Amino acid sequence: METVVITTEPERKVDFILKAAQKRLGLYGYEKTTMQEIAADIGMSKASLYYYYPDKDYLFKAVIENEQKEFFIQIEKRIAELTDADTMIMELVEIRHTLFRKFLNLSKFRLNEDHKVKPLFTELYNRIREFETDILTTIFNKGKESGILQFEDAKEIALLFSDLLQGLRIIEVKRMSRLEMTEAENDHLIKVLRDATTIFINGLKYNMLLQPKN
Q1: Measured in whole angstroms, how far is the alpha carbon of residue 100 from the centre of its chain?
Q2: CA-CA distance, 178 to 17, in Å (whole number)?
Q3: b/e burial code for range 45-82 (CB count within 10 A of at least 16 → b)
Q4: Helices 85-107 & 56-80 angle (0-180, nearest 10)
Q5: Which strand (E) or helix (H) includes residue 85?
Q6: Total-model pTM
Q7: Are 89 and 137 in contact (CB under 8 A)?
Q8: Model confidence pLDDT, tens digit, residues 51-72
Q9: In what helix (H) or strand (E) does residue 205 lie, and over which residues does it extend?
């Protein structure tokens, strides 16, 4: 029997607001988007918009959390379809990059020495990092149990790998000539992430080869 999902009017309104906010943020970025403009886009009064979201930070967070939710669903579904750990890790890197690019586009945010990172951005990053680390820990343990990878502590390896990828993203963002990533810059970054992932996994596989045979 097919499950029927009943959506309430407030839920429909929230979904409408999030889609409008996502569209405008994608065009103009966080700093250049105002609550007044979003309200006007959907024919809503500014006061009504504030009823659902008290400020722009709260609305931006809701948009990104919606993207993160889709990422969580997508990566868990994809990993459930796979069996080997190295393919799982590469899939996570690929899908995680899509989320990173969406965040970059919605925020139009580029790191530099004069820009102080908003606590909001840090909070959103920490949430995705926690999820990413948990998934990676599970995958690395599967790789160890199957006799493919060798290391001491899966959680430490997961944190190290997550930080490695984040460091590479930050380096590439700092090199960007503008606030929106070009296709060439995107292609270069995903190649860097794939190469780094391959080197990292091969290192763990090499550790396995060095283990004494019983």
Answers
A1: 5
A2: 28
A3: eeeebeebbeebeebbbbbbebbbeebeeebeeebeee
A4: 160
A5: helix 85-107
A6: 0.82
A7: no
A8: 999 999 999 999 999 999 999 9
A9: helix 183-210
